[in-house]
Design a protein that fits this description.
By secondary structure, this protein is α/β, with parallel strands linked by helices. The chain has a domain at 33-197: Rossmann fold (3-Layer(aba) Sandwich). The protein contains seven helices and eleven strands. Helix 5 (105-117) packs parallel to helix 7 (154-170). The model has no long low-confidence stretch (mean pLDDT 85).
């Protein structure tokens, strides 16, 4: 399963494969296609040879499942049959609205841990039955939503999140954590937990056009470019189109 070749041109950005079990934060401002990038990477990686019997889990804490799928359609990213999109936000809201359970901060993390520890059921290749597949990727979308739901103080949240990520590493799952921020990568305290950091953003041209860029800020044990690259939405999903000369103008 290759992330470095999961979207056209990605091999220019990642020049090797992140080790299995890596924790990768994808951060950027609103509209920078963080969710779309992660889904596109996971979907195309699952299409590669050697990925039979593997699946991915995408847990959304900020949007409904339907909203995620509509957004993917607008980006020309096909819905993958072996990616389970779990709308945890609606589940938590249901519990709160019906007072079925008074959720505490650590219970929210336990729900997330429970979701990722199960092997999801998917239709078999012939559609005649269902089968449990082994998750190789998980996306938690987003850290902002997780922090808001838990309402834990920062130090306690980091300890619990560290335990969750340790579990994911032990299971060999590569994890993507979405972080929405307008402050850039250097001001995000969650990044010390990550093996990799991918920044997405907008480059403003002199004639006031905004171009999207992708920038690998760090990726442990993986060769990668230290330059930002431009990417765009095509009729086949996302594509890297070339290096961005100089620092992005924000």
């Amino acid at each position: 399963m290759s992330l470095a070749r999961a979207i056209p041109g990605m091999h220019q950005v990642l020049r090797g494969e992140p080790p299995e079990g890596s924790v990768i934060v994808v951060l950027g401002p609103p509209g920078s296609i963080k969710t779309g990038l992660i889904y596109n990477l996971m979907a195309n990686a699952l299409n590669h040879k050697g990925a039979q019997g593997a699946c991915a889990i995408h847990i959304t804490l900020d949007e409904s499942r339907g909203s995620i799928l509509r957004n993917l359609t607008s980006l020309h990213i096909p819905v993958h049959p072996r990616i389970q999109v779990s709308d945890l936000a609606s589940f938590v809201n249901f519990l709160e609205e019906t007072h079925a359970e008074d959720l505490q901060g650590e219970e929210v993390l336990d729900i997330v841990a429970g979701k990722v520890s199960q092997h999801p059921l998917f239709p078999s290749a012939d559609g005649a039955a269902t089968e449990r597949l082994c998750p190789r990727f998980i996306a938690i979308d987003s850290l902002n939503g997780l922090i808001a739901l838990t309402q834990l103080d920062p130090s306690r949240l980091r300890r619990r999140l560290s335990r969750l990520l340790f579990t994911l590493r032990q299971q060999g799952m590569t994890s993507f954590l979405v972080l929405e921020t307008t402050q850039g990568w250097a001001n995000a305290p969650e990044l010390h937990l990550a093996d990799g950091v991918i920044e997405l953003g907008f480059d403003k041209t002199p004639d006031d056009l905004h171009r999207r860029f992708i920038w690998v800020r760090k990726m442990r044990a993986t060769p990668h470019s230290v330059e930002p690259f431009l990417f765009e939405v095509t009729d086949k999903g996302l594509s890297i189109v070339g290096v961005l000369i100089g620092e992005p103008q924000r």
